[in-house]
Design a protein that fits this description.
The chain is of the alpha/beta class. It has 15 helices and 21 strands. It starts with a strand and ends with a strand.
Length: 480
Amino acid sequence: MITFDRLYLGGSWTAPSDPHLLDIHSPHDRSVIGQAAQALPADVDRALAAARAAFDNREWRNTPPADRIAVLRHFNKLREENADRIAELITLENGSASWFTRAGQPGLSRQANAYLKAAEEFAWEETLTPSDPAATLRSVVRREPVGVVAAVIPWNSPFSAATSKLIPALLAGNSVVLKTSPENSLSMGLLAELLDRIGLPEGVLSVLPADRETSEYLISHPQVDKIAFTGSTRAGRRIAAIAGEQLKRVSLELGGKSAAVILPDADLDAVIAGLKFGSLLNNGEACIAQTRILAPRSRYEEVVTALAEMVRSLQVGDPRSPDTFIGPMIRLDQQQRVRDYIEIGIREGARLVCGGPQIPAGLEAGFYVTPTVFADVDPSMRIAQEEIFGPVLVVIPYDDVEDAIRIADDSEYGLSGGVWSADVAAALAVARRIRTGTVTINGAAIGFDGPFGGFKASGIGREYGAVGLGQYTEYQTITY
């Protein structure tokens, strides 16, 4: 059993204010796989005091960008060396299938390398050329760190969510308090161990697993200058209200209900193979999952049949098994939430093509649900509008391209989406008209050099690359 009985607070492993350790349970069979200390408001106070002192003494923020880049490059190397351990821990505590946690490790490297490249090319300080040739004044524009950052992340993809915030925040010279979910106390404990080895100055970084009440205490704290949050839209609205009242800087990566638009000429075999991953990654517990499948009426039943055959073929079971594609939901309440939505879909009149609310036979000890496909779904149905966060797909028919774009945009969300076509130019034309932050063509992977984030209720601000790095800086202009 893995135990973390101390908190990583201000760069040191410190006794928590509450010595009680939280049991961490396996979603597969509910067994206890570890124990970990949890932060309370008193621990947040200590972490923020250390972060503020570190920021005010200027050691890290005055470290040249090239040296900060070297420190974070060292971290990325350590993370790569521990990729197998990271994948194993997330599989144990999240129930994410091992194929997914292993496949995600190279993505973490690409994410980090994109930030490092952006930092190397970033305009940390530049002198502007006057617009008036006769002007004698000169302006210097500098990019300064925001200050103390509260980074708050969800449980579904903890390492990716953590590093997407930690790396740019630290590259920019900020101090950071990372608040993680209790469910991820083991993998985030390993993250803290790796970060402890890279030589950050005292006080610059804390990693605190904690519940929602402690999280709200953190983001409301007067010592926090910026909140960087990934999570539900409901929580994001609450955080935005707090940030607005206190004039804190804020970036929010929130929920999604992404559409996959299948154009009439698409190669259906390629579509189904791509949606297997694009719609059902991480057991469906992914904000970018393309769970609304928009199919042309001319091929509607063909799409429904092929999609259902694929979903029925998926192995559901122990996430540690290499044959498993879909593991359990992370908690009992999440399992019940997904099963409730399946019941809602049935009551709304959608056609249940495969799956259903029943727990898969033989897996009753864990938090499993049966992967499900609904057809004959009206875009107004709750299963087509609300984020389910599980392996539930809805197939919606459309009449023509205009109708497909209208349906794709008929959502409060706008995080991700996809277009499938044999004609890339036609797919690009459709993608440009959908109001969503990221669109992939024919199953392309999301890149890390360009900005990632959402339209509408899917968030504020962007992550990744130079744009993501800039979210952790303030402009200062000096004229002389």
